[in-house]
Design goal:
9 strands; YojJ-like (1; alpha+beta; 7-stranded mixed β-sheet; about 260 residues; nucleotide-binding; binds adenosine-5'-triphosphate; transmembrane helix; 2 domains; two-stranded antiparallel ribbon
Length: about 260
């Protein structure tokens, strides 16, 4: 296509760089905030040291490091088994999501009836969240439709129920056997309750963010999902997306975020 100095650049080279860049970014997103990220940096450092030792001809150290490097791929697969699994799931899910978007467009599913239903569901979730906040009932709600959360969410009780305000409040009521853990909803249904989410290990989260908030952030680090958290202690509502925690939402901000992220 064109030359940079003596280097001919083809369109495939640019595509190559873009794909590798995109995959590395997704890998970073998967590892970010978790202990696996530190391990990854450790592995990179080890590799740099090994390369330096080889260049400098330090034979004894090289022999020791060689033991690690020779087993490198196997060690990496064992250490990063959950991340590799999630990465492959991410690739598969994205393909499925594209197919479902195309289908949605062909079937024109975003018709008037659908949008009225959506408005009703968003209103129900908002009312439930606000009321739970006022009553200091702790809650954790995750929105997802296309993302297969297998491997990220564990436990959980299958619900497949309509989204209504009384049902959401009943689930999180302290007397309910389902109140512990997160509710996963999407596609107009409450899909699961009592789910255990991955807890974020991000050291930059505020000290006052306990396990419920860290679980909301954790799931948003691992998958493209939004999570709403009602604090039992303060009654305040927070929002987690893309590994970031937005705390103390006003009613207006809650409405905006629900509208934007409800799936
Ligand atoms: N990994 C997890 N996945 C889903 N829910 C969790 C997880 N860990 C804790 N929880 C929920 O959070 C509750 C404990 O919350 P904790 O008090 O530690 O968090 P917090 O962020 O300080 O929230 P709060 O402000 O409501 O106290 C548990 O009873 C459980 O329902």
């Amino acid at each position: 296509m064109f030359d940079i100095g003596f280097l001919p650049v083809r369109i495939w080279d640019i595509l190559d760089i873009l794909i590798v860049g995109y995959l590395l970014f997704q890998l970073y997103k998967l590892l970010r905030g978790s202990i696996a990220f530190n391990i990854f940096i450790g592995v990179l450092l080890l590799y740099v040291v090994w390369w330096l030792v080889e260049q400098l001809g330090m034979d004894l150290l090289k022999a020791v490091l060689n033991q690690f490097v020779n087993l490198g791929v196997i060690i990496l697969v064992i250490i990063f088994q959950p991340e590799i699994r999630r990465f492959l799931l991410f690739l598969g899910n994205n393909t499925l999501r594209q197919r479902s978007n195309v289908l949605d467009r062909i079937l024109n599913r975003s018709n008037l009836e659908g949008s009225e239903q959506r408005d009703r569901q968003v209103r129900a979730i908002k009312a439930a969240v606000m009321r739970m906040g006022r009553q200091h009932v702790g809650a954790l709600i995750v929105f997802t439709k296309n993302v297969n959360l297998e491997g990220i969410v564990s436990g959980g009780v299958l619900m497949d129920a309509a989204i209504t305000e009384p049902l959401i409040e009943s689930i999180f009521n302290k007397e309910s056997p389902l109140h512990d853990g997160a509710v996963v909803m999407g596609g107009g249904k409450i899909m699961m309750a009592s789910c255990i989410l991955p807890v974020s290990e991000n050291p930059n989260l505020p000290k006052s963010a306990g396990l419920r908030h860290r679980a909301g952030v954790g799931v948003s680090e691992k998958a493209s999902v939004a999570a709403f958290i009602v604090s039992e202690e303060t009654g305040r509502v927070s929002f987690a997306y893309d590994g970031q925690l937005e705390r103390y939402l006003s009613e207006q901000r809650l409405t905006e975020l629900l509208e934007e992220h409800y799936v």
